[in-house]
């Protein structure tokens, strides 16, 4: 599908109307006249309902019959209903504010120079869920093509998911900082000359108490991302060798090719873990 910012009247007609894309729990068609300054309750209710469910899109300007698109209506006058006005209404009347929300005015030149279809696209609420419509102090969700009030257990479940998401993000960030430090330490030692003896302490890779104590925290991450602690075993194995190799040298040790290979493997593992943790953090943003 075209990027939302590139949509035009022809795309709305070809993709949605002629393509017979039916309404769903992720798509709602609305008459342009329902976007009115006289009554903003439905705008706030429907927008918050989508965010509280799985996210989705509302298109003001496409008519429908039994959930199937029938055409493009006369559109909205963009000089009367502006993007800024819609943003202000939603920001002022939905709590918490919906973070991931796009509002796009699609020109409808066949309907007039100022006429537009208005598209609202919102992602599923995560860290800020659920969103309350302050017009009536209710929580709504999209279900069976309608915006329905959420039941008590649904509101509680959404709040629990929100807390878990925020906790997961914080844990991912804390572990990422430590894993990056391990990766840098491994790379620094790998770059050291391997011929001469150097103080053992310069070869040892320190592991913070925070990372060692992250075992319980890791269970909040996805199963496929719970590799943060696996690198610790490799670091401990490397450190154990450094502490026992070249005993005749007492305080000194030599970085052998075998040890360099271990450092290389530690750096690769740490990089892989860091990439997975960064993906979690990016999903929050």
Automatic annotation (TrEMBL):
- Where's the Schlafen AlbA-2 domain? 23-150
Q: Which Gene3D superfamilies match?
A: Schlafen, AAA domain (3.30.950.30)
The record's annotation in InterPro entries points to: Schlafen_AlbA_2_dom, Schlafen_AlbA_2_dom_sf
- Please provide an example of a Pfam family that matches this protein in its UniProt record: SLFN_AlbA_2
This chain belongs to which protein, by name? Schlafen AlbA-2 domain-containing protein
Record the organism.
Bradyrhizobium betae
């Amino acid at each position: 599908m075209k990027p939302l910012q590139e949509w035009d009247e022809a795309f709305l007609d070809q993709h949605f109307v002629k393509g017979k894309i039916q309404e769903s729990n992720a798509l709602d068609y609305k008459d342009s006249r329902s976007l009115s300054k006289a009554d903003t309750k439905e705008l706030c209710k429907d927008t918050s309902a989508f965010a509280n469910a799985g996210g989705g899109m509302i298109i003001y300007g496409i008519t429908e019959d039994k959930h199937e698109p029938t055409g493009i209506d006369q559109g909205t006058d963009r000089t009367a209903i502006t993007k800024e006005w819609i943003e202000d209404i939603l920001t002022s009347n939905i709590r918490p504010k919906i973070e991931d929300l796009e509002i796009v005015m699609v020109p409808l030149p066949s309907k007039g120079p100022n006429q537009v279809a208005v598209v609202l696209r919102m992602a599923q609420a995560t860290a800020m869920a659920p969103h309350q419509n302050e017009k009536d102090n209710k929580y709504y969700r999209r279900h069976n093509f309608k915006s329905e009030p959420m039941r008590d257990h649904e509101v509680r479940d959404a709040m629990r998911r929100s807390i878990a998401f925020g906790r997961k993000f914080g844990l991912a960030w804390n572990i990422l900082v430590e894993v990056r430090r391990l990766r840098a330490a491994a790379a620094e030692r790998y770059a050291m000359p391997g011929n001469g003896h150097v103080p053992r302490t310069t070869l040892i890779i320190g592991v913070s108490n925070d990372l060692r104590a992250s075992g319980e925290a890791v269970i909040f991450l996805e199963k496929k991302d719970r590799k943060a602690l696996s690198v610790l075993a490799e670091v401990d194995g490397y450190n154990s060798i450094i502490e026992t190799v070249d005993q005749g040298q007492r305080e000194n040790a030599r970085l052998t090719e075998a040890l360099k290979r271990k450092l290389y493997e530690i750096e690769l593992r740490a990089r892989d873990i860091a990439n997975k943790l960064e993906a979690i953090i990016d999903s929050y943003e």
